Amino acid sequence: MPILVLLACAACAGPPAGETAAPPVKVPLVTSSLPTADLTPDPALGKALREGLLAVRAGDPRRAVNAHFNPVINIYEARYRAVPGRVYCARSMEEAARYMKDALRAHQPARVVEAGLVLAYVYRARELMILDDPVAAQAGLERARVLSPANAAVLVQLGAAYKAQNKTPQALEAYQAAVESIDLSPSETKARETIDAFYGLGSTYVALGRLDEAEATYRRCLKVLPGNALAEMELKEVQRQRTQGR
């Protein structure tokens, strides 16, 4: 895939007849600081992630974390530290475009690469949660959020890590961000990430006793995923709790 670069252009024309040309305007050279994106998959990274997932499927979370996901994260973090400017990871060109626009607004050099490193953080966090280590899961996912601020999978998992530590306000913010990021999820994972984000947000509202907002969340989910059994079940539960509370 060719590298995509956002370029700024200026049109130049001579003065109308009879008019004096204005002095030339010096335009700063900014090409080197423009954001770029290259989402070409890294075969070595993909192979390492697949090997980690084999350990996950074998039911060995400790080996998956220590022998696979940690080394991948360490190698690619070191590699990206050598890249000038900020590094983002994206699963699609739509997501990459979002990050490039953010970088342009911030006048910040940036490069967007494939999402393999962020996937490693997400996979590792899931195994760390199984190992009852939400603190370590949270730390990695907060780094993943810096790399992929609009990745719903990262945000949902981060919300779960906060919730496991009774950090309810932080969980609420993460799930809200996940719901707002669903439009950028790839088609193959969008349905799963949609229900995970809405369920996480709705259940957090319930934990806070904010039943009206919980009901609105599940109704909004059903507009996006009509007939979803989990959303319908949770909506009925919220209505039951409201009735009992009267």
Order of helices and strands: EEHHEHEHHHHHHH
Round the mean pLDDT to the nearest integer and report it: 88
Strand content: 5-15%
Helix content: 55-70%
Number of helices: 10
Write down the overall geometry: globular
Radius of gyration: 23 Å
Cα(first) to Cα(last) distance is 60 Å
Strand segment count: 4
Structural class: alpha/beta
Sketch the major β-sheet: 4 strands, mixed
Please list the strands of the largest sheet in the order they lie side by side: 1-2-4-3
What ranges have pLDDT less than 50 throughout 5 or more consecutive residues?
1-31
Quick description:
The chain has 246 residues and is α/β, with parallel strands linked by helices.
In words, what does this structure look like?
With 246 residues, the chain is of the alpha/beta class. It contains ten helices and four strands; from the N terminus they run ββααβαβααααααα. The chain has a four-stranded mixed β-sheet with strand order 1-2-4-3, with helices on both faces. Helix 3 links the parallel strand 3 (86-90) and strand 4.
Detail the topology: elements first, then pairings.
Elements (H helix, E strand, L loop, with lengths): L3 E2 L30 E3 L4 H15 L3 H21 L4 E5 L2 H13 L4 E5 L1 H15 L3 H14 L4 H13 L3 H14 L5 H21 L3 H14 L4 H17 L1
Parallel strand pairs: 2-4, 3-4
Antiparallel strand pairs: 1-2
